[in-house]
Amino acid sequence: MKDENCIFCKIAAGEIPSNTIYEDGDFRVILDLNPAAKGHALILPKEHCADIYEIDEELAGKVMKLAKKLAVHMTEKLSCDGFNILQNNHEVAGQTVFHFHMHLIPRYKEAKNNDILMWSHETFTPEEMAAIRDQIQYR
Ligand code: 5GP
Ligand code: ZN
């Protein structure tokens, strides 16, 4: 299903031009308009879903398989030194376009902005850690 107000739906459908590096029945993979690094790309499902909470589990699995293939391919072609695969959900987590997308970010030792994904740390007591562990234990 397509959301008429969603820019990534339009890009995924080919209605808005993009630098496409891969396309199949489920996905279009495009270069990010404001790349964090040379080759920064986005995997866009053609089906509209806003985020990880909405995406179909099977499609989410396909996203990861494609990310794996493209990471290998892009690393070979770009001769990058490492790779980030990341995906933001909701504004507080940095999401700015509310159509699920997976970032593929090649990383280069010589890049000047290598702190782009550094974060500061929070501290929890051992008791708090145990409570958090119990809270999110998944069975
Ligand atoms: P988010 O912050 O939601 O995880 O990532 C959105 C990404 O989409 C950003 O990196 C931004 O540069 C990129 N972006 C936003 N609008 C467009 C667009 O119209 N075309 C392309 N190719 N990338 C876009
Ligand atoms: Zn959409």
Summarize the entry for a quick read.
The chain has 139 residues and is of the alpha+beta class. It is built from three helices and five strands; from the N terminus they run αβββαββα. Helices cover 28% and strands 18% of the residues.
Fold blueprint:
Blueprint: H1 7-12, E1 20-23, E2 27-31, E3 41-45, H2 57-78, E4 82-86, E5 102-107, H3 126-136
Antiparallel strand pairs: 1-2, 2-3, 3-5, 4-5
Residues 7, 18, 30-34, 42, 88, 94-97 line the site of guanosine-5'-monophosphate.
> What's the shape?
globular
Strand order of the largest sheet: 1-2-3-5-4
Q: What is the beta-strand fraction?
A: 15-25%
Q: What gyration radius follows from the Cα positions, in whole Å?
A: 17 Å
Distinct ligands: guanosine-5'-monophosphate, zinc ion
Tally of DSSP β-strands:
5
- Overall pLDDT level: 96
**Relative helix content:** 25-40%
Helix/sheet category? alpha+beta
